Amino acid sequence: MQKIIGRANEISELRNIYNSGVPEFVVVYGRRRVGKTYLIREMFAEDFAFYHTGLSPQDMDEANMMNSQLNNFASSLRNYGEQCGLVKDWLTAFDKLKNLLIHKIEQAPDKRQVVFIDELPWLDTPRSQFISALEHFWNGWGAGIQQLMLIVCGSATAWISDNLLHNKGGLYNRATREIKLHPFTLCEAEQFYQSRGILLNRYAQTQLYMMIGGIPYYMTYVEKGKSLEQITDSLFADRNGKLRDEIEQLFVSLFSNHEECLKIIKLLSKRKTGYTRKEISEATKIPYGGGLTKTLKALAESDFICQYTYYGKPSKEERYRLVDFFTLYQFSVVSNKKNPDSKDWKDRFGTKTMTAWYGTAFESLCWYHIDQIKRALGIPSVHTEEFSWRAEASETNKGAQIDLMIRRADGIFNLCEMKFSIADFAFTKEDEAKMRNQIASFQAITKCNEPIMPILVTTYGLSQNIYSNLIQAVVTMEELFG
Predict the structure, then answer these.
(1) Dihedral (C-alpha) 377, 454, 317, 251: value to the nearest 10 degrees?
(2) Region of poorest pLDDT, from 1-5, 343-347, 361-365, 457-461
(3) If you write DSSP's letter for every residue of 44-89 in order, what string do you get?
């Protein structure tokens, strides 16, 4: 097994599951390209009693999708020793898998039999009755076989949620374990680059993270010996750039209504605070109803967007904002370039568009590294709630927006000011006035009596001047890598 970067909790959990001595039905899911298949292969490849990967719907004729998937499954069965020809349906396919496993268990009754079915949602083609066959396989046989460890994996997170984790039929509550794999943190991304001999300083790594996120598959395209400028060109600007056409392929592979999903993502990339469901419907012309609700749920479960409500506001005012770094960069910057083939670094990084993107992306990075911020503040074990807050201007109030507030169980509120900067950030008179107004407005409107301690989260540090005394603590980029 190669050294797996990060994933310490997942590795520990999978090892415990492997050694549990009881039948296990493990669901591993997460955003596409996040490394699910790599993790399972590296941990269990030598123990696979059966391994199969579904065929991408993009590569198949719609009329023959079911037969193509069945033929491919039969081929995998033959690869692992089960003598079978073509199979006509999924009930027969899983019966063949059961026969294969019975034979292996007879040969090695004390050995854990690991079955790994990757891209499971792709097998569930229209009218195939795949879910019924899987239910029959597990409920009628697998759940009683203590040697069996069934691992299923998929990137279509909404499908996983509806059909496995929250199934209302025969698979209700049948998954014994579920593991959601998240993108790397800055620290894990740095370990990944170091393992490949890639030497980038942390400022460059932070910028790259804000472009592609902690997605291991995208990170494999980062070449050793190149500067950030060269890396960005090779990924996005070159005519054969590795990630130039990734957006379309990504959404087509995940969502049957990928065009509607892309409309929503493009819209959300325009405003860092996001939009309400009503605003999304009006702007995209997608009917305000169950279909939109289902699409937003699917995008959220796949970690492209998040759903939130401003602190103190009713749930009916919930909003949706874009949190996926790769799609944010694509639609905020790459798609807005006058010349998509331009490789002029200044053409991209000296614009208002880039400045706005830096601010939004850095705020998302801070949200994703809340644990690191808490550690830097010396409160890693204190229970906290994180939220945004907004007050509209009125006759008695100037209005205020707080992008990140940390409410601590020890009775303190941390108001987080997040600034991406090329050097130590210098607070101005306007910055100080804005923060004082934020504090006063929040206290007046929410009736908050707890102390509010402003902190600055930034790349390098705080330049001391007459306006900086309001800041009680500074969290730097180095600490975000912690």
Answers:
(1) -50
(2) 343-347
(3) HGGGEEEEEEPPPGGGS-GGGHHHHHHHHHHHHHHHTT------SS
Q: Rounded to the nearest 5°, which phi and psi values hold at 171? A: -95, 10
Tens digit of each residue's pLDDT (9 = 90 or more) over 397-433: 788 999 999 999 999 999 999 999 999 999 999 999 9
Pair of tokens at residue 228:
């950030």
Q: List own/partner pairs for 250-253 with CB under 8 A and 24 or more apart.
A: 250/32, 250/33, 252/58, 253/32, 253/56, 253/57, 253/58, 253/155
Structure tokens at 300: 């959220």
Structure tokens at 90: 């999924």
84 close to 77: Cβ distance less than 8 angstroms: yes
Nearest Cα neighbor of 146 from 23, 294, 301, 11 is: 23
For 289, half-sphere exposure in the C-beta direction (CA atoms, 13 angstrom radius) is 4
pLDDT for the residue 350: 60
DSSP state of 20: S
Element of type H or E holding 401: strand 400-408
**Backbone φ, ψ for residue 169 (5° rounding):** -105, -135
pLDDT of residue 289 exceeding 90, the answer is: no
Neighbours of 359 (CB within 10 A): 15
Distance CA 241, CA 423 (A): 31
CB 114 within 8 A of CB 149: yes
Amino acid at 349: F
36 touches 161 (CB < 8 A): no
What 3-state class would DSSP assign to 422? Answer: coil
- Do 158 and 295 form a contact (C-beta atoms < 8 A)? no
- Nearest one of 113, 134, 117 to 46, comparing CA atoms: 113
3 state SS of 439: helix
DSSP-based three-state secondary structure for 148: strand
Tokens 């409920």, located at residue: 139
Phi/psi at 308 (nearest 5 deg)? -155, 165
Mean pLDDT (whole number) for 67-77: 96
Query: What is the rounded average pLDDT of the residues 184-211?
Result: 97
The string of DSSP codes covering 199-218 is ---HHHHHHHHHHHTT-HHH
- Which residue bears the tokens 């990084």? 349
How many CB atoms are closer than 10 A to CB 313? 15
* Helix residue spans in 224-369 (DSSP H): 228-232, 246-254, 258-268, 277-284, 290-301, 325-332, 345-349, 352-368
The answer to whether 214 and 184 are in contact (CB under 8 A) is: yes
